[in-house]
Amino acid sequence: MVVFDATMMLLTFRPNGKAPPDPETGLPVTHVESRISALIAQLEKQNVKIILPTPALSELLVDAGASAQSLIFHIRKSPTFFIEPFDIRAAIEVALMTRKAKDAGDKRSGVDAPWAKVKYDRQIIAIAKVNRATAIYSDDEHIHTHGKAAKIEIIRLADLPIPIEELVVQKKLNFSEIKEIPFETEGSLNQEILEYEEEQKTE
Predict the structure, then answer these.
(1) Of 151, 127, 153, nearest in space to 138 by CA
(2) Nearest to 174 by CA among 88, 26, 84, 50
(3) How does residue 85 score in pLDDT terms, banded at 50, 70 and 90?
(4) Which uninterrupted H or E stretch holds 195?
(5) Domains of the chain
């Protein structure tokens, strides 16, 4: 299993969104859609599940606006993406991380961020750990710091190779329908889902 944080989630379902900077150039990462498409294709081929932690998912839904319910609908139908909650196991893991940091004399573990952000990031790390994820895809520097302490590999978008164009064309995201759902749309969400279900019946 691997984990996508909020930024990776947003770029997965909205590839035209703002890309994070490449640490080497300082410029926005290029070929966002093709990099992520190739990554998901590879993970699917290897039967690797992609975890969407609920704390990060909540950030995605804020940006989704009126399309939030439709987005959840598509994610739940996916054989690749799985929503994992911040449950009691994760809560215990966060408590252990925080206690260890306090015993070391710095409850933030050297992270220069508000305490609320530290707790949020540790929740992401904890969900990854209790689900035995091998990596977290994130461009958040704080996640990188916490992940290193937890001995979990953190992979940036810029670390993903740019695939050969022909391969990218052949492999599309399973969520191509989501790209057609504009964020902050007007109208009834229930109507959107009904229309989607009707389209599926006619295919």
Answers:
(1) 153
(2) 50
(3) very high
(4) helix 189-202
(5) 2-87+131-202 (3.40.50)
